[in-house]
Amino acid sequence: MKKSIVLTTMLFLLITACSPNEQNQQPTTLTIMTHDSFEVSAALVSSFEKANNVKVSFLKSGDAGSALNKAILSKSAPLADVFYGVDNTFLSRAVEAGIFEPYNSPALKGITEVYRLDPGNNLLPVDYGDVCINYDKAYFSMHNLAIPATLEELLKPEYKNMLVMENPATSSTGLAFLLATISHFGQANFLDYWKNLRLNGLTVVDDWTTAYYTNFSGSSGHGQQPLVVSYASSPAAEVIYASTKLTEAPTDSITGAGTCFRQVEFVGILKGTIHRQLAEKFVDFMLKVPFQEDMPLQMFVYPVNPAAKLPPEFVQYARVPETPESLAPEVIASNRDAWIASWTETVLH
Question: Cβ-count burial of 131 within 10 angstroms (0-12 exposed, 13-18 middle, 19+ buried)?
Fold first, then answer.
């Protein structure tokens, strides 16, 4: 009898001692919803996972607009805990949809104030980039043609049929360029500019990939247009991903006053998450220096944390416009659909 009691007691102690450890060995899954362009170093994610006993799962959900639509449509049964990829062209829409939980991250103290566009901290800034016009250096050199320095110069006959851009109804890059013209020329006059740009042989395609790798002569080498709406960081990417080592980028960006539009991307905690503390830790992780320094060579964007150092390729080959165009998020939210509709009627019909 005593032997039975002892064995029972030992079994109970063994079970109670092992169960918590076994439970602790099972990491929680934290799901991060992103746009398709999101990339991060595997080693960096692994370090976060080990430090927090968590498994991070990334749910890529289309471009920024498509991903946001998916998050809004699924708000009654959220697909993720954290959302990354809302930019300032969709900021007000995202906040008004009520799908985010405010979070005043302590890491915000180190973030440049100009990028903190949501005073309620539903969405916290992570990175920025500038949509500009890129040009094929070889083409302009071969034809002894000056580089257009302003949006107005693109209307000159010598640049006829030279520009390809993305449709703002289907591409955030194209939308950013449309917003640059609205900011530069004003709401009353921007359509006049587009009428004239169309008459000068503007080419419009659905997405950035088609514009850059099919139409643009500077990357594919066989495209028809030597001017493309892309990013000021694209020349750095050309050098980094070149099949043979380059000492000079084959492309460059037009960054004069009024020619570029600054995009800021944000992260937010989705309402209804059951992993709030882990979600906060991941947001903090994105704002801290290691993640901020990883982004430039992963997504070719700039960190919002001024303590993050840029890779040499960015310093040498990418440009930062001194005076990029911008519009308040609430102005964009109130007019976006109407602007796109009027642009479509003017340029595509």
Answer: buried
The span from the CA of 258 to the CA of 324, in Å, is 6
Q: Which residues sit opposite 54 in a β-bridge?
A: 28
Q: CB of 283 within 8 A of CB of 121?
A: no
CATH class of segment(s) 7-128+263-310: alpha beta
* Beta-carbon-side half-sphere exposure of residue 275 (alpha carbons within 13 Å): 21
Q: What is the pTM of this model?
A: 0.83
Highest averaged pLDDT of the listed ranges 89-98, 110-119, 132-141: 132-141
CB 208 within 8 A of CB 173: yes
Choice among 169-173, 174-178, 277-281 with the minimum mean pLDDT: 169-173
Domains 7-128+263-310 and 129-262+319-347 share a fold: yes
Give the residue extent of every domain in the chain: 7-128+263-310, 129-262+319-347
Query: Which residues does 7 contact at the CB level (< 8 Å), separation at least 6?
Result: none
CATH of the domain spanning 129-262+319-347: 3.40.190.10
Percentage helix, strand, coil for the chain under 3-state DSSP, each rounded to 5: 45, 20, 35
Backbone angles phi, psi at 264, to 5 degrees: -120, 130
